[in-house]
Design brief:
Layout: H1 5-21, H2 31-42, H3 44-57, H4 63-89, H5 92-110, H6 119-132, H7 140-167, H8 169-172, H9 175-202
Helix pairs in contact: 1-7, 2-7, 3-5, 3-6, 3-7, 3-9, 4-6, 4-7, 5-6, 5-9
Length: 207
């Protein structure tokens, strides 16, 4: 049976927005969850990486989307497991922007011809997003709640956009949609390149 992605998207958005409405209500201990959500929206590198990931899943619908979601979720899980080590090994913000720039350029240049090679940056973005969603060390329960809030954003966003795209796929498919995806990818690539240059300069790496 073919999954009803649009119904799934509507359900996820209802649950997500309903939970936010109760953030200031009778949900003791939920502050960390919404702190994790807010963290994603406060980090331009995370938002850019998420946007590029979503665009990378759209061409060759729905085959690449289904396999790409699995690849992204696997990378996300590994990022959560290896987050501390990754943070010590490389600058997460710069790495996110660099991979987003590369993936965005690949989609902009190749579009549907990006083939399965695009799964590599999707996995890398999942890995880095997972690591970036980890909060500072602290009480294990608080860390778990905050992390759950952080990773819920990319997962809900990817499933919701996929559902919306599936619901409109008959109208949006065709050369026009492919061109729109490539233009959006080029814009995100340019923004990621600009921010990466600012981070590079701000850290004094070019001195």
């Amino acid at each position: 049976m073919r999954p009803d992605w649009s119904r799934l998207a509507a359900t996820l958005l209802a649950l997500f927005s309903g939970g936010q409405a109760e953030a200031h209500g009778a949900l003791p201990g939920s502050e960390g969850f919404y702190t994790g959500i807010a963290h994603v929206f406060q980090e331009p590198a995370l938002l850019l990486a998420l946007g590029v990931t979503i665009l990378a899943l759209m061409p060759d619908w729905p085959r690449r989307y289904r396999s790409g979601v699995v690849v992204f979720a696997t990378g996300l899980a590994l990022g959560l497991l290896l987050g501390r080590s990754l943070a010590d090994l490389l600058p997460l913000e710069f790495a996110l922007l660099l991979i987003a720039m590369i993936a965005g350029a690949a989609i902009a240049l190749l579009g549907d011809r990006a083939t399965s090679a695009i799964q590599v940056p999707i996995a890398a973005l999942g890995l880095l997003i997972g690591a970036a969603c980890l909060p500072d060390p602290g009480d294990p329960v608080d860390v778990l709640v905050t992390t759950t809030g952080g990773v819920s954003v990319p997962l809900v966003a990817i499933l919701a956009v996929g559902g919306a795209y599936d619901g409109l796929s008959n109208r949006l498919r065709g050369q026009g949609m492919s061109t729109a995806l490539r233009i959006a990818s080029a814009w995100l690539c340019a923004i990621a390149a600009m921010l990466a240059a600012l981070v590079f300069r701000g850290n004094g790496w070019g001195a």
